[in-house]
User: Fold these one by one.
Assistant:
Number 1:
Amino acid sequence: MHSARLLIASLLLTVGLAAHAQGNPRVQVETNMGAFVIELDPERAPLTVANFLQYVHEDFYSGVIFHRVISNFIAQAGQYDEKYAEKKPRETIHNESGNGLSNRRGTVGLARTADPHSGDAQFYINLQDNGLLDPQPTRWGYTVFGKVVDGMNVVDAIGQVATGQAGPIEKDAPLKPIIIIRIEELKSAP
């Protein structure tokens, strides 16, 4: 009887994990340096994922650049096109940084200003573990809403490009533009 319960519990866990994995939306980010895939976490960051996917479906990210790259920290995109013209985002959203997700290597977060509820279209990818971006008892953190699940080698290559001053960015801008050609939501397997 005990082994039958263990078998049933094991099967339920396996089915549950498979269903959860299939349910998480994924997007492919195609850049002029290669492509990578991000799995989003709508259970932990529902507002942020819905916001990001709306930008994806509106084709907002086509032609934007990674405008800020800091080696061994983050790569950030979502505001400027190749000529550093700003794209106009929608309204900002509520900060969801207390969702239990941490700014670990390969995770994707919502960029913001010093105002904790100022995130809109800009996102970043953690190039290493960045616990300092997580919430603390005395301050808001930065909302993690997904993770790179394929193509981290492309993200690492982006993280190693030469940077300096470009457009309105005083430092940390890639000297050769890293362009997002498109971001598209991947269809889940039947």
Number 2:
Amino acid sequence: MGLRLKFNIVLALVFAAGMGVSAWVSHQLLQNNAKQEVLNNAGLMMEAALAVRGYTVQQVKPLIESQLEAKFLPQSVPAYAASETFNSLRKTYPDFVYKEALLNPTNPRNKAVEWENDIVNNFRNTGATSEITGERDTPVGRMLYIARPIQIKDAACLACHSVPAAAPASMIKLYGDANGFGWKHQEIVGAQVVSVPMTLPIKNANKAFITFMGSLAAIFVVTFIVLNIMLSVMIIRPIARMSASADRISQGDFNVPEFGKSKDEIGTLGTSFNRMRRSLQKALKLIEK
């Protein structure tokens, strides 16, 4: 087995071990980073929805208050405004789903389902919790979600949700007086929930993983080629020349050029070889006499 082959086998084994460790570590990190990135984007969208809610309550609703007695306008409802704004965002981010899940909503489309009820009750029971993230299984695959509480911090919201008598007649006519009432100031009545298919962060992570591993493999190939060239030029060729010269000298042919001087180990070996050659040549001349 030649020196080059031994060197390449060791190099390949070291690279394979390095690739294996790098693949495992980078895969875990990229999966976590991709997941966190998706959650951060979901959080930003949720903040945008919350800003729309505040804008609707503080600036839109007061302007159309007088019209609500004659005709109820859903655009005056913060939850409706936030949901519609998010639906517009879904044209750019189709994988993100937003819902204002309420325990006792006026609009039936905002009614919390079982797993959303658990989140809202968790917020109600642990009032200090400001955010919950997690994963859940669905018929279409595993979903990643982020949820934040909806708390009645603006007393103006209670105008439509305290008692039916205080609500606009047009709203009662549209939705009835059975749901969406009894809310209290500072009460947590629901949760903002953004859901994303786990396939999205996994897809992003896998894409980054393939790019990283491909780059690492390309670096190895370049390194492998450069090291083999260096091995050939700096070690194998000089040693092969010394071996050929030693064969000729052993057969009595001293007409071989001496090796040049250099400061590395191969140069030191060449100097020793030159000295040995001269000593052997002198010894043979003495014997011949």
